[in-house]
Amino acid sequence: MEVISIKLPEELRAKIAREARRRNVSQSTIVRESLERALAVKRNGRDQLSCADLAGVLVGSIRSGRTDLSTNKRLLADTITAKSRRGRQRRR
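Predicted structure:
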């Protein structure tokens, strides 16, 4: 890996240091990840991020307590059926 030297405002450097301590990683890791995210904006020749790009940070961030959601076919079928019934209910 190559070394680069940059000058940062004290406030930004402090934010990087806090995040590094919170995540128990180096400050260099925080800067590298931030630069990679910022430079990844131009994906597939587009200048804008897609909805999937924006939601990417949320994937896996919420735990449901269920470990078999992707493999339990019966649960999946029951969920789909329940949601379709809910959509058919008439509101008064």
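Summary: The chain has four helices and no strands.
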